[in-house]
Structures are given as C-alpha cells and as structure tokens.
C-alpha cells in the first residue's frame, strides 16, 4: 500500500500562508508569556525592596523606578488638592486625593489615598489635612495614558478621570521633578481619611491560553486541509502496482 496525494496548488498555498501565520501568533504569545512573567517578577522584587530616597529614585529615571517604594520629606501643598474619580475594590465610587508634595528642592504629585464622595471636599476632613513638615513612604508609579473615551476633567471642581500628571500639574502651575505619582502607603492619616495603601498590582496573564488557541487553530486547519483532499479523492491509499 502507498499514499497517493495530489494537492490543490492554490488551496495548498493559502493553507501554508494561514498555517504559518497561526503558528507565528502562537510563538508570539509564548514570547509575551515570558515577558509578562519577567515583568511580574520585577514588580514583586521592586515592591519588596527597601524604600529609596528621592534623589536616588530621580537618578534612576521614571520608568526604572517603577513600583519602587520611595521616602519623601517635605510638605503637602493642600490648597492645590485635585481629585481623581475611580471605584474601590467593591465597585463603589471614590475619589483619589492628589496633592503636590514639596521637598527642599523638588515637587512631586502624591496620591494620598481615597475618600468617599461625601468626603471629597477638604472642609469635611480637616483633621486629615497635614500641615507642616512630614515624612511619607509611597510607591513610585508612572501612570498609564488616558484612554480614547476618558472624559475631560471638570476643572471647576478639580475632578479628573485619568492620572494625567502633566496636565494636572499644569493646571496648578506646578513644576514636577518627574511625571509620576507617589501612591502613599497604608499609614493612617489623622481622622482616618484619605485612606492610603491603594496600590493595586494586577497583571492579566492569559498568554498561555492564547498560544494554545492559536496552535489549536493551526492544527485544525491542517485537519480540514487533508480532510478536504480526502473527500475529493486526492488523498488515498493505493495498492502497489495499481
């Protein structure tokens, strides 16, 4: 017995191109999987590392210091509070309180934590308005850019819908040392608000599932390709000499 195979040229070329594309997508997802695992490991190391002084974080650069904890000594510029609308872990509306923090030489934007809508006005939580010199520890974050459908800010109420650091600083006439936000840790504030420790580290890592899907589609394509040729009599077993 021998196998007789008379492939259709056009179909074979199209199948080869599509098959190569599916395999390429699967390999790309495996590469993305390794990149994502390395990113998660780096973030875990950065969060577990000892806090950096500000000058060292600035020397590292905004991206290199991502997710490192940083210690700041200085004063809050409370009159320039801004508010970022968001939701908490339970899906309830909250505001992140963003305040310029002035050290001896530099100014950075600090996310002091969240408050419920009823406590958004600073006058409702005067105990939490820290005056004078203070020291805080927070996580260095380079914010993600605003999305295409992000609403514009309400400048009159100083409410923002994305952490557009440069625009927030420009609206306040503040020159920042780096385009980052320092997310304050969970150290309680006087009066309990704002509530810090809101850093969320969650990376979707579904690249393995995506890779399996692309490889499965490639395998299915081959099955259909040979099944079609079999149905047309172009793939069959023949007796030798027949």
Please specify the SSE layout and strand pairing.
Layout: E1 2-5, H1 9-48, E2 52-53, H2 54-60, E3 69-76, E4 82-87, E5 93-102, E6 107-115, E7 134-141, E8 159-160, H3 165-172, E9 181-184, H4 207-231, E10 235-238
Parallel strand pairs: 2-3, 4-8, 6-9
Antiparallel strand pairs: 1-10, 3-5, 3-7, 4-5, 5-6, 7-9
Description:
With 242 residues, the protein is α/β, with parallel strands linked by helices. The chain folds into two domains: 2-40 and 204-238; 68-192, OB fold (Dihydrolipoamide Acetyltransferase, E2P). It contains four helices and ten strands. Helix 1 runs antiparallel to helix 4 (207-231). The N and C termini lie close together (10 Å). The mean pLDDT is 92.
Sheet with the most strands, sense and barrel status? 5 strands, mixed, barrel
CATH topology of the largest domain: OB fold (Dihydrolipoamide Acetyltransferase, E2P)
| CATH architecture label of the largest domain | Beta Barrel
Detail the poorly predicted runs.
none
The radius of gyration is 28 Å
Give the fraction of residues assigned to helices.
Answer: 25-40%
From the structure above, extract its key features.
alpha/beta, 5-stranded mixed barrel, two-stranded antiparallel sheet, 4 helices, 10 strands, 33% helix, elongated
Question: Brief description of this entry?
Answer:
The protein contains four helices and ten strands, in the order βαβαββββββαβαβ. The chain has helices at 9-48, 54-60, 165-172, 207-231; strands at 2-5, 52-53, 69-76, 82-87, 93-102, 107-115, 134-141, 159-160, 181-184, 235-238.
